[in-house]
Amino acid sequence: MAVISTFKESHFLEFREERIDLACAFRWTARLGFHEGVANHYSLAVNESGSQFLMNPSLRHFSRIRAGDLLLLDANDPATMKQPDAPDETAWGLHGALHRRCPHIRCALHAHPIYSTVLAGLADSTMPPIDQNTATFFDRVVVDQDFGGLAFEEEGERCAQLFSDPKKSVMVMGNHGVLVTGDTVGIAFNRLYYFERAAETVVKAYATGRELRVLSDEIAEKTAEAIDRYPNLPEGHFDELKAILDDEEPDYRD
């Protein structure tokens, strides 16, 4: 038993801060109601090439995930799904392909928050820049219009190809949900939070039935660039989220 305990402790110490950040993202996803029962999945690359990544274990509710629960996987290991602690098959299909094909993607958050998913169900799933939040994503979103069913390996490979442009940090997965990326967990989670807020604004604006006041491309891009450069906004937001959990749910660090 002592040998097993030592192994677990050693496993947890590897990429400890990365694990804590990702566990925080899971807990806050549940708190905000962005989760989908025990489905959906997040990942974080931990080596230079991006092929090794942390991801949530299969069928674990986001509100219960701890840093030490996260799986350490290799996108190039064909035996992954034969292991006793294999991840969810669709999680492996989507995130394995992303970390195998897109080294510029460090963190990938796939979820079905309601307003983003409503946007994904519209014939036109683009995000019109009608306020500051929606303008944040101007020319930074790719819309997948070819949903092919659950994200097993073939579907994951197809989605990964749509992220060839590093400027695109969000994918509206038509008829499915949203996939948000970032250089860190904090950046990606901040992006997910604001994309869902922006989608809510757009959906409610459409519901009025009145004409939208759409920003010009010039002003929308100016706004997006200013937000991209705004100092420490994602990091400050995420640090506060961790501080709240440290007070209220400190076991997320375990």
Q: Key terms for this structure?
A:
L-fuculose-1-phosphate Aldolase, alpha+beta, single chain, seven-stranded mixed β-sheet, 254 residues, 44% helix
Question: Could you explain how this protein is built, in words?
Answer:
Residues 1-8 have low confidence and may be disordered. The chain has nine helices and seven strands, in the order ααβββαβααβαββααα. The chain has 254 residues and is an alpha+beta fold. It has a single domain (2-253), classed as 3-Layer(aba) Sandwich (L-fuculose-1-phosphate Aldolase), CATH 3.40.225. Helix 3 runs parallel beside helix 6. The protein has a seven-stranded mixed β-sheet with strand order 3-2-1-4-7-6-5, with helices on both faces.
Largest sheet: 7 strands, mixed
* Gap from first CA to last CA: 19 Å
Task: Name the strands of the widest sheet in spatial order.
Answer: 3-2-1-4-7-6-5
Secondary structure tally: strands? 7
Helix content: 40-55%
According to CATH, the homologous superfamily is Class II aldolase/adducin N-terminal domain
Number of helices: 9
Radius of gyration: 18 Å
